[in-house]
Amino acid sequence: MTEIFWMIPFFPALGSLVLVLLGHKLSKKHVSFIACSTIFISLCISVISFAGLLKIGAENYPLVKKLFTWIPTHGFKADFSLQFDPLSAIMVLIVTVVGFLIHIYSTGYMAEDKSYSRYFAYLNLFTFAMLILVMASNIVLMFVGWEGVGLCSYLLIGFWFEKHSAAQAGKKAFIVNRIGDAAFLIGILFIFFHIGSGEFTAINTAISRGSISTGFATVVGILLFAGATGKSAQIPLYVWLPDAMEGPTPVSAFIHAATMVTAGVYMVARMNFLYSFSGTASHIIAFIGALTAIYAATMALTQNDIKRVLAYSTISQIGYMFIGCGVGAYSAGMFHLYTHAFFKSLLFLAAGSVMHALSGEADMRKMGGLKKYLPITYPAFLIGAIAISGIPFFSGFFSKDAILTKAFTNGQYFVWTIGVLGTILTAFYMFRLIFLTFHGKERITPEAKMLLHESPPVMTVPLVILAFFSVVAGYAGVPAVFGKKLDWFSCFLQPIFSRGREVHVSLGAELALILISSFLAILGLYLAYLSYIKRPQFPHTFATRFPFIYRLLYNKYYVDEAYDALFVRPLVRGSEQIYNKFDLKIIDGAVNETASATGSFGKLICYLQTGFIKDYALVFLLGVALFLGYLLF
Amino acid sequence: MIQPIYFIILSLIIFVLGIIAFFIKRDLITMFMAVEVMLNAANLAFIALTKAIGIIDGQIIVLFVITVAAAEAAVGLAIILLIFRQKKTIRTEDIQVMKG
Q: Which helix (H) or strand (E) holds A58?
C-alpha cells in the first residue's frame, strides 16, 4: 500500500484548483467540505503510507516514485519525482495532521469573511506546495515547493490586502525571502555544476565517494543555509516573520509556526550528509541558531501584541532546531520541529480563539482575567505554554533537552550556555503572556466585553486535539535516562542521519543536564509569576529604572530601522536616481529622440510640398526635360 | 510642298508658348487653355511628320488626342466649376489645400 504515497500532494492541489475556478459559485459549506476533505484524504494516505514504511525495513529507503522527466537536457536532468522515507514521512504527517486541524479551525475562524473560498484555495495550494517541498527527491523540485510555499505565504499574509499594513507585510515577507532564495538558487547551481545531479541520493553518493572537496561543501552548505535563514526567519533575515502576523491567525499557526518556517530545518536535515561533511557550515548553523534563539527571545519579552510574542517565540524555537542540526544532532532538531509544530500551532490557534472572543483585539494590555470566560481556550493555551517552556514531561521538555544535551556532549559549550539561558527567557515570556491575558485585572474594553464568548466547537475541538498532541508527542523520543529503548524517534530517523555525530553520554551527565534546564524553565515561570501576578508594578519599575534596555527591546533593537536606513532607503533612492537618469533620460530619451528625428526630417521634406500647382508642374517639366535629354544625348 | 521642318518649328513655337502661358498665367481657365494649346502643337507635329513619312498611324493618334482633349476639357471645366463654387476663386495662389 505504500506505493500510493505519491498521490499525497495532489489532493490539496485538486482542491485548490476547484476552489480557484468554481469557488465563488459554491456556498461556504461546500467550500469548507472541499478544502477539508482533500486534506483529509491526503492525511489518510499519509497514515497508510507511514504504516507501510514501518513494515518494509530500512534497507528499502527511500521509496522513490518518478512521475515524469521534468527538465531533460544534456548534462542537466531533473525529474519530477517524489520520495518517501522516515524524514519525509514525519514532515508529511506533520503537514497533513496540523493542516487538517487548521483547515477545520479556519472554517470557524473565517466564517464571516467575504473571501472565504479564496482563503481556502490559498490554504490548499500551500499544503500542496509544502508537501512537494518535503517529498521532492531532488533539490530542484524541492526548490519548486520552496518557492510555492513562499508564494502562498505572501498571498496569505496579504490576504486582507485592503489593509495597508497587511499588503506591506506581504511584500516585505516576499522580498526578504527572495534574498535568501537567491543564495539558495546559487547553491543549487553549484551542486549541478560539480555533481551533475540534484538527486539527494546522488549528492550523498558523490560525498561518500569523496569526489567533492570540503571547501566546496562549505560554500554550498552556507549558500543553502542562507536560503534557510530567509525561509526559517533566522538572523539576519528574520525581520519578515513578526510582520507576517498581519495575516489571518490560522495562517500564522499553519504557515508561520508549524510548517513553512521549519522548511529550512527540514532542508538542513535532508542535506545532513553535506553538513556533516563540512564542519564549518555546521558551526555557522549552530552559532546562528543559538544567536537567534536568545535574540528573538529577548524581543519577545516586551511585545504587547499577543501574536507578535508568539512570532518572536517561533523565531527563537527555530533557532533551537538549528542548534540541533548544527551540532550534528539532526534527529533532535527534527524532533523539536515535530513537537513545536503541535504546541506552537496550538498556541497560535488559542491566541486566535482569544482574539475571536474579543472581537479581534490582539493587544494584551486590553486583556486580562479571561480565564473564567474561556474555559476551553485557557487550559489549551496553558498546555501549549507549558510544553514550549520545557516544563518536565510535556513535549517541549523532551525535544529541547535532546537538543541541549547533544550540544553539550558535542562540546559546543557556548551554544549550550546560550540555549539554556534561552530556556529561562522562553518560560518567562510565555507565562508573561498567560498572566497578562488570562489572569490579573480585567482590562477589556466595554464594547468587547459585551460580545465576549467562547469560540464555537469547530475551533475548540482542534485546540483540544492539538493540546493532546502537545502533551503526548514528546513521548516518541524519551531520552535514554528513562530507559534505553524508548527513543523511538531517533531510531526511526537513524537510517537517514547515519553520518550525524551521535556521541553517547553517561546517564548521570544527561540527568544533570535535564535537571539544569528543567530548573531554569521553572525559574523562568516563577520570575514571570513574581513580575506579573505578585508584584504587577515591577515591570513598570524596571522599565523606568532601565529605560535604555526597555526601549531597545521594545523597539526590537531598532533592526527594522537599521535595515531601512542601510538597505531599503539607499536602494529606493538609488532606484530613483537610476529612474531619473537612466530610464527617463536614456531609455525614454532614445525613443523620443527617434520619433522627433523622424518628425523633423518629415517637416524638412514637407517644404517641397507647397500646394502650388505651378511648382509641381515645374518639377514635372524639369523631369521630362531631363529624361528626354538623357534619352537623346 | 513646304518642308516638314517648318511645321516642326511652328509646332515647337506653339508648344513653348503654351508652356510659358501655363507658367505665367494665374487663373485656372487660362492655364487650361494653355494645356490645350500644347496638345494641339503636338497634333500639328504628328500630322506634319506622318505626311512627310507617308504613314497613317500619327493621324489616328491625333484623332485620339482630340477625343481625349474633349473629354478632358469637360472633366477639367467641371472641376474648375466646383472649385469656384467652394472657394469663390480660381486663382492658383489661393488654392493650396495640398500644402504639407
A: none
Interface of B with A (CB under 8 A): 19, 22-23, 31, 92-93, 95-100
Report the alpha-carbon distance of residue A254 to residue A135 in Å, rounded.
Answer: 18
The C-alpha atoms of residue A373 and residue A449 are separated, in whole angstroms, by 10
- Residue B100 falls within a domain, yes or no? no
The pLDDT tens digits of the residues spanning A242-292 come to 999 999 999 999 999 999 999 999 999 999 999 988 889 999 999 999 999
Domain count, chain B: 1
Domain that holds residue B37: 4-94
Between the CA atoms of A170, A171, A176 and A181, what dihedral angle is there, to the nearest 10 degrees? 90
- Domain membership of residue B71 (yes or no) is yes
| Position B16 in a domain | yes
Q: What is the CATH number of the domain that holds B17?
A: 1.10.287.3510
Its ipTM equals 0.82
CB–CB contact B93 A608 (8 Å):
no
DSSP string, A185-222: HHHHHHHHHHHS--BHHHHHHHHHHT-S-HHHHHHHHH
A453: left (phi over 0), alpha (psi -120 to 50) or beta: beta
Residue B39: pLDDT band by 50, 70, 90 thresholds?
A: very high
**A window 103-122, beta carbon within 8 A of B:** none
Residue A539: pLDDT band (50, 70, 90) is confident
Stated as kind and residue range, the H or E segment containing A67 is strand A63-73
Residues of chain B contacting A618 with CB distance shorter than 8 Å: 23
CA A630 to CA A130: how far, in whole Å? 84
Residue B32 lies in a domain: yes
Minimum distance, in Å, between the CA of residue A606 and any CA atom of chain B: 5
Q: How many residues would you count in chain A?
A: 633
Nearest chain A residue to B19 by CA: give it: A621
Give the helix ranges, DSSP H, for A110-163: 116-135, 139-157
Interface-testing mutation among A600, A604, A605, A614, with chain B (most B C-beta atoms within 10 A): A614
Q: Which among A410, A408, A430 is positioned nearest to A419, based on CA atoms?
A: A408
pTM of the model: 0.81
Q: Where exactly are the structural domains of chain A?
A: 1-173+232-253, 278-554, 560-632
Tell me the chain B residues in contact with residue A606 when contact means C-beta distances shorter than 8 Å.
100
- End-to-end CA distance of chain A: give it in Å, rounded: 101
How does pLDDT run across A334-360, given as a tens digit for each residue?
999 999 999 999 999 999 999 988 888
